[in-house]
Amino acid sequence: MMTCNDLSGAEWHKSSYSNGDGGNCVEVACGLPGLMPVRDSKRAGGDGAVIVFPAGGWYAFVDAVKRGQI
Description:
By secondary structure, this protein is an alpha+beta fold. The protein has one domain (11-66). It has one helix and four strands; from the N terminus they run ββββα. The protein has a four-stranded antiparallel β-sheet with strand order 1-2-3-4. β2 and β3 form a beta hairpin. The relative contact order is 0.21. It comes from Streptomyces abyssalis.
């Protein structure tokens, strides 16, 4: 896991599995070379924590979830 201090220009995208009632959803910020910031969509106003993963590790995790391995 890595840390990143300035995500003010990041474009956040909510999970396609999110519904409109503000349930348990995550957002990711794309466009940061080699990094994948992830946050809780309910705390997106800047007061919530962001976890920054190496992009390759994030994509491997998502792929494993899709294949039912996690």
